[in-house]
Amino acid sequence: MHLSILSYVLYKTAKFVGFFTGRAGCFVVKSRSMNPTPPNQNSNGNASGAAATPTTAGGATSGTSPTFSPLYQQIKALITQSLQSGEWKPGELIPSEMELANRFKVSQGTVRKAIDELAAENLVVRKQGKGTFVSTHHEERAHYRFLRLMPDEGVPHYPESKFIEVKRLRAPADVARLLDLKSGDSVVYIKRVQSFDGVPGIVEELWLPGAIFKGLTAERLAEYKGPMYGLFESEFGTRMIRATEKIRAVVADAGAGELLHLAPGTPLLSAERVSYTYGDKAVELRRGLYSTERHHYHNELN
Question: Global pTM?
């Protein structure tokens, strides 16, 4: 009887100590989204390395062991939030490392490491002697981040676009699933042919969420001379951050052969791409057929 009481007391004591340690230890939860959980704020609103309550990916308190987020990743999350909110616009200079260190009450080295990761992810770009700027799709270097078809010979250059069809329609089930929409939601559908030096090389179909791209018309697309992502960024406030692709070999059907000036049955490269903006929100589905007679798909793996 006495052993049973003692075991119960030890069990309750251990449970209390474990709970207390989880609350008061230096546990910081790392979010699974693109915007990790920011550092806690002290009474003055300054960032600190204080403890956070262990939570699940959905934000609910969890009894499982927490994961740890280094301080520089928390600062990275705060800077990303400022980029997402539009505090610093694409192409604008962001505050210096010293200014950001004072703002978040951390060391300059912590800020530098956070910015290093943001630069590696192409969210910001460092310019020697000028500072760090918010990346923009209007920069020449950004044009080829999402264009992977390169010439076998000669210098890469951006293709000319001819729009075949632009219309609003209800999202098919597969499109809605990939764009995280409800089946039947409004989408903008675009079909175009892209040519290199007058020779058709790509035929693409794009689907964009209608709620985000209100006012996007065939006339606006035709008159805009820069890269399409530049238009999305400047006029619709949507910046493509990353993309995932599925690639497979196919053969041209009669329709694709006519648009690409190829005989039906010619081998083509098929790519399905979903592009995401801040917060890992899908904002574009693109399906393309690529002629590789004079071009090849180029990618750099790090």
Answer: 0.67
